Write the C-alpha cells for this entry.
Amino acid sequence: MLVRLPALAIALSLTALTGLTAWASSSAAPPTVECRSIIHPVGPFSWRPERVVLGVAAVPPAYIPQTVPSGVRKWPYWSKSGLVIRAHSPPVLVSVPRRWRKRVAITWGNVDVASALRIASCPPSSSLGAWNPYSGGFYLRSRSACVPLTFRVGSRTSTVRFGVGKRCT
C-alpha cells in the first residue's frame, strides 16, 4: 500500500493538472454562435449581400446611424445590426482588436456581450437561401465610435471598420 500511495498521489496530481490545463485553454476560447441562433425573417423578403468579407460574412454597413441606451452599466450604448454568414462556410471568428476591448463589445446569435465569438458552420436554414442571418450588434462605452472588427476564416483575416453612431473616414 505504501508503494501505491505515491503512485496514486502522482496520478491524482496529473489528473488535476490536466483538468486545470483543459479549463484554462477552454476559457480562452471564444463563445460559439450555434446554428439554432439563425433568425428566420417572416413574410416577403428581398435581400442581397452588399458588404461581404472573406467571401462568407455579409457585414453591417460602414455607417450605422443609431445608438440607444442599453441598460447595461458597463456598456451604456447599444447599436443593433445583423450579421449574415454564408451557409456551409467554415467557422467564422469575429473579434474586437485588443486595444478596443475597453470601448467596444459585440454580440450575435446566442452569445452574451463578448470581445470575440465564433460562428459555427451551418447548413442553409433561412428564407435568405444560401445565407444565414443572426441578430445582434455592438455595445459601446460612448455614444459613437469608429469600430474595427477582425474577421477570420481559416488562415485568412480581414479587419473592417464600422461607424457606429457617426461617420468614419
Remarks:
- Residues 4-28 form the longest helix (25 residues).
- The chain has one domain: 51-169.
- The CA atoms of residues 92 and 153 lie 5 Å apart.
